[in-house]
Amino acid sequence: MPFLFGKPIWGINSGNNFVWVGVLFVVGALSQKINAFSRVNKKLMICFSLVIMIVFPIMLKISSITQTATNLQSRIYSNYSLPLFILSVLVFGIFIETRIKLNKKINHIPSINWFILTGYLITQVPIINYQLSTNFRLNYSLSGSRWLEYLIINILSVLLATLLTTLVISEIIRIPYFNRLLVSTSIKSINSLLDFPKFFRKILAQNWRSLLVIITGFIVSYVQILVVTLLYTPFSFDMFKQIIDLSSQQLILSTIIIYLFFIFIFGMLNRYWYSYMIVVAASVVITVAESLKISLRQEPILPSDLAMLTAIDDLIKMISPVTIIIVIITIFCFAVVGLVLQHHFDKLYHVASLKKRIVMIILPMIFFSGSFFVYHFGSLPNIIMVGFNVKFSTIDQGREARNNGPIIQFIQSMDTTIMDKPSGYSKTNINKIMKQYNHEAIEINKDRKYKLTNQTFMFVLSESFSNPNRVPNLKVSPNPIPYLLSLKNKYNSGLMLSTGYGGGTANMEWQSLTGLSISNLSATLATPYTQLVPQQKISPNFTNLFSQSLAIHPYNASLYNRINVFKKFGFDKFFYQGSKDKLSYQKKIDKNPYISDTSAYKQAIKTINDKHKGSQFIQLSTMQNHMPYTNYYSNNRFKIFGTAGSKTEKESIKTYSKGLNYTDNSLKMLISKLNKIKHPVTMVWYGDHLAALYDKDSMKKYGVKLHETDYFIYNNRTHKTTEVNKYVSPYSFSALALESSDTKVTPYYALITKITDSLPAMTIDPSQSQTNSINGSNIFISQSGKKVKESSLTKKQKKLLHDYRLIQYDLTAGKQYSAHWAEQKIK
Question: What is the CA radius of gyration of the chain?
Fold first, then answer.
């Protein structure tokens, strides 16, 4: 009926329906029982099969008078096709008869059942199916002979792969353990189906411990995807079915991963209930941590986050006490249950063999080691991931955590590529670029007056600072930052394009200090401080220009690996809470748990006043306006209007706005103090990203607006505004600071100056999704705030961009031919 009328019945058209599989099984069993194939002439079956195999492809080639080739193909080659069913039966019969005759002459011939099963699996595994339907798709425009040649080659390739795989399986089955397993689970005849309930109870009794772990793993995997989905999508009952429809294969893989983790723990402890409870407790912690990370940062847990475990005390302070208590109580309950069960059923399941335990430990380790190769396309780990329909886009990690589940998303993020190699990368071309910008620096310096001698440069990163009245669909009254806006009219200023939303402070620091764009890096490299800098031999940065460099961060410095990064960058001192170089000012405002901006600015002024002879650089990253924004301040009179934030978020925006107002007043004090300093001081002051408070604004619609922060460049030697770069990226701050102070440049900063002056601002695409993008999707923003495609750049701009990427690749992922060139001082 499906073949005749082109309509499916009982879901047969999918080819995966239990009814259809059952029908095929019964037909096969009955054919065997009545010995149907021995009654048909083998030569006749071969001839008829060849006719079907030749005629139908030709019909597709020449098409039909009444149907298009596509419609004809769907009718003839669908899973419910009558011709294909007949062809399958004939081929099956040919193999059966051949197997019977060969069996009399040759021992250990693989069973025809294995050959057919292997063929089915090979053609149905997603990765193989994908290859057959794309790379092996026959082009209708081919000549008849060429088309037939490709068809034969493809058929023979699949048959050869099936035959080789079958031979391997047949050899494995001869191993006693696997042979016993096969015999105990085989259905020998159609009558065996009547014994299925007894067979099922036997399997359950023998393997309930493993089944319990597998079922638990599946439930945990499902709940994790459900939790992540709920963080992005309003609840609906269809959600439960959609998860199965969209992520069924990922759920199976995640279950396998959890089971292998259990095997590893069990091999170590040899205690079933302890191992089981550890797996469950770890799953709970992962689920809660994933939920918190996405809620706070709009991205899932990544391998780079593990570096923050050294700052666990500080991370805990950012989490609700209620959440912490619930997690602790839950883990405690699991521990108690595990102890009780293990005490009462201590002898339930032990592995006496040390060799077996070693295997249980080693095999999962081998499996998990593949995590470092999942992005090596064509590798076995990559094939496994693709086979389970794992999505590999890392531009939106949150979306992929919904599709793949947190565990798989974490594992696939472990294989990190720093940056794709630009075309033409070689020592010769790098030397050409260096020579070109040696000359460019000479030309720029002809019009620059000063060297760095006795100058102070300071980069001030103001945590989460951005004008809330620029946020679409939001109005804050009164204006919380009037002084900053007046400064922006007085000094070189504009809007910085942040590469984060609600987070990513360290990435802004890295770009401003190195002059490199994070948007040129691979999408798998989320945090250069933790994933890139530690493996660089040389890390050229802005501090190289100065005789003294100091960093100030009024908080614990273990986040983002700052202590080691700043040491590698060449900072002479690093002031933070708990550091050897003590913070002199640590006052806070009302109930705010973070050190105030006033205290941070006083620390900076003290550092400038303590300056010795020579040039000085200061990196100050504040903390006052860091999330969460819990009703910290008394006498908060700010009012919030608009639809950008939910009712709950509006209370947080109110607190946030009061904090911005405190920063505005502190900034007035800072500028007043800087104006009194005798030697030249240049300050780049900027907000690093918006606070993640505007949950009702669409990132797709307002992506650029929700990544705009304020910046200005102060100089106590001149108050003249020379140029307003309305849109810049943080990698331009070094060049802009040198330009604003009329200071000479090195060849490397001549390149950064050229990039800043001649190209639109580079950044990640902020509007790809509702969530915070990471990197790897490079776009340009014009001075009017419009997106610019790379293809629309001029020939000169494309050449300049390519030179910049060659140098960035060389410094981050290449041979570092230009490293010493990039870190040279101003002559």
Answer: 33
Distance CA 413, CA 131 (A): 25
Pick from 749, 736, 622, 753: nearest CA to 688? 622
Q: What is the pLDDT of residue 295?
A: 75
Do residues 388 and 246 touch, judged by C-beta distance below 8 A?
no
Distance CA 528, CA 612 (A): 32
In 3D space, the residue among 686, 666, 548 whose CA is nearest the CA of residue 608 turns out to be 548
Cβ pair 807, 815 in contact under 8 A: no
Extract the runs of DSSP E, i.e. beta strands, from 314-422.
none
Residue type, 375: Y
Q: Is residue 59 within 8 Å of residue 7, measured between CB atoms?
A: no
Are the C-beta atoms of 135 and 157 separated by less than 8 Å? Answer: no
Both tokens of 393, joined, read: 């886009």
| Chain segment 735-757, per-residue pLDDT in tens | 999 999 999 999 999 999 999 99
Closest among 740, 731, 739 to 760, alpha carbons compared: 731
Q: Are strands 787-788 and 548-553 parallel, antiparallel or unpaired?
A: unpaired
pLDDT at 503: 85
Residue 561: name the closest of 547, 545, 574 by CA.
Answer: 574
CB 390, CB 410: distance < 8 Å = no
Tell whether the model's pLDDT for residue 216 goes beyond 50. yes
- The full 3-state SS of 133-200, as one line of letters, equals HCCCCCCCCCCHHHHHHHHHHHHHHHHHHHHHHHHHHHHHHCCHHHHHHHHHHCCCCHHHHHHHHHHH
Q: Is the pTM of this model over 0.85?
A: no
The pLDDT tens digits for 442-467 are: 999 999 999 998 999 999 999 999 99
Judge contact between 629 and 653, C-beta under 8 A: yes
Q: How far apart are CA 259 and CA 598, in angstroms?
A: 53
654-658 long-range contacts, Cβ below 8 Å, gap at least 24? 655/629, 655/630, 655/631, 656/464, 656/468, 656/625, 656/629, 656/691, 656/693, 657/468, 657/476, 657/480, 658/480, 658/632, 658/633
Is 141 a residue whose pLDDT tops 60?
Answer: no
The C-alpha torsion from 313 through 319 and 320 to 324, rounded to 10°, is -60
Cβ contact 73:60 at 8 Å: yes
